[in-house]
Amino acid sequence: MLETQWSQKIRQFKRSAWRHVPSAKWYHKTVDKPSVGTEREKKIISRYAKGLILDAGAGSGRITNHLRTLNKSVIALDISVEMLARQVECGSNICGDVEALPFKNETFDTVNATWVLVHFPNWKEIVRELVRVLKIGGTILFEMSSKEHLNWAKEILPDIEKKYSSAQAYESFETVDEIYEELRINGVRIDQVIPYDFLNSNEFLKFLCGQNESCEKQLFNLLSTAEAIDFWCRIEEDILSSFPPGMSHKNFFIANKIQMVPLLDRNYVNVNMATNLNEAARLAMKIIGQKKEQLLLIYLDVHYYSTLYSKRVRRFHRKLTEIFSQFLPIDPISIASQCKKETLLSELKQGHYHGNFKKDYAYEDENINILRHVSLKEEFSYWAEKLVTTWHETPPNKTDISICDVPFGPIMEYELMKEIILQTPSSVYFALDNEGQ
Ligand SMILES: C[S@@+](CC[C@H](N)C(=O)[O-])C[C@H]1O[C@@H](n2cnc3c(N)ncnc32)[C@H](O)[C@@H]1O
């Protein structure tokens, strides 16, 4: 089939796919529920969406409803009446076509189009129409699947494009440069590119896991509670958002319509690209290495409040650590043993990190108090036992550091770990591993 016929077929299919009651019902039931991708999108969109907002291809209100609960002023437009009928929050809903919007030029302060452009081979035409109705100075928000990701994926799965070859499964994959160029032509400049939703269709992750699909599935299964999703969202936001586009399957774009079309600012988006998977893995490790203190802080923060966080969060974290342990220092003890004492302490004391745990921890005299919380103690015991039993294979470096004066140098660390292990019956901390899903 000719390229144009093929793209016409996909376009027609996507325009009608959600116009039937069963498909609209199915979409609403399966997609309109918390997931890492949705939570991240909601957070990013609610931060940048201002003034009069158009939610283009709004569907059953996954994003519209959220914006309306925040009292934002949103017009939801979709070609499917059946999808619009499922929106729960009241507001202006319009049945219309994103390819020919029923609005004057420069009407909206913000245009959001999530899970829309990615479905269409003619996404560029739709972008032009979205930009037309955007005011100068306004913001356009959308996500796109990453061609950088697809190119890396081909290294491990040469046939990967077949996965997206039917009209039903079609996705547009574009590089940041291609999107940058298209927006530039339309007088829009990218402000931020955020890779997100890392655990979804991520071939890079499979590469790190040795192409083991079950790793991804196991992690996904553990991500079914709000607490586990929240924990992972924080890791994505604070650490993984610095990864180059391509390490996640999708990127979220935040771009502004400017009066002057910029000519020579192609470096505006500082994309530090890696050309192959091994290089990408090295780059990822480097970034994680720079963020290890944040990783520890998120970890401690979560565990201090672990009465609020479910056991599932801890099991999710353990599974993640098990999978990534060959690449990343992701257990609390090995991260701690690599953090700079001064930086860590000053972060804790200045309260740089969100959450309140530092208020209680940072000024306490009794060293062991940092470990007083039962679940935190269990976690340290768990990891201490794992680490101590592997020390004979790789002895730790001789460094003398501490967290809030709890010593973590190898000798003291060993003593501390021994104490914790002896204090906590292993039946307690290993029990978590054996619980059903
Ligand atoms: C995958 S859903 C995304 C819905 C919503 N934006 C979200 O993030 O959940 C795609 C939506 O685009 C709508 N759509 C497809 N073609 C359209 C068009 N030409 N004009 C307006 N909406 C369209 C569909 O009806 C469907 O509701």
Describe this structure in words.
The protein is an alpha/beta fold and 437 residues long. It has two domains: 3-226 and 245-273, 3-Layer(aba) Sandwich (Rossmann fold), CATH 3.40.50.150; 291-434, no CATH class. It contains 20 helices and ten strands. The strands form two sheets. Strands 1, 2, 3, 4, 5, 6, 7 and 8 form an eight-stranded mixed β-sheet that branches. It has a two-stranded antiparallel sheet with strand order 9-10. Strand 9 and strand 10 form a beta hairpin. Helix 10 (213-222) packs antiparallel against helix 14 and helix 11 packs across helix 14 (311-324). The chain is elongated and about 70 Å long. The site of S-adenosylmethionine has 18 residues, from helix 1.
What is the topology?
Layout: H1 3-17, H2 21-31, H3 36-48, E1 52-56, H4 64-69, E2 73-78, H5 81-84, E3 92-95, E4 108-113, H6 123-132, E5 134-146, H7 147-156, E6 173-174, H8 176-185, E7 188-196, H9 203-208, H10 213-222, H11 226-238, E8 250-257, H12 277-290, H13 292-304, H14 311-324, H15 332-336, H16 341-350, H17 357-361, H18 374-390, E9 402-403, E10 406-407, H19 410-423, H20 426-434
Parallel strand pairs: 1-2, 1-4, 2-3, 4-5, 5-6
Antiparallel strand pairs: 5-8, 7-8, 9-10
S-adenosylmethionine (SAM) is lined by residues 14-15, 18, 57-59, 62-63, 78-80, 83, 97-99, 114-116.
Q: Would you kindly provide a brief summary of this structure?
A:
This protein is α/β, with parallel strands linked by helices and 437 residues long.
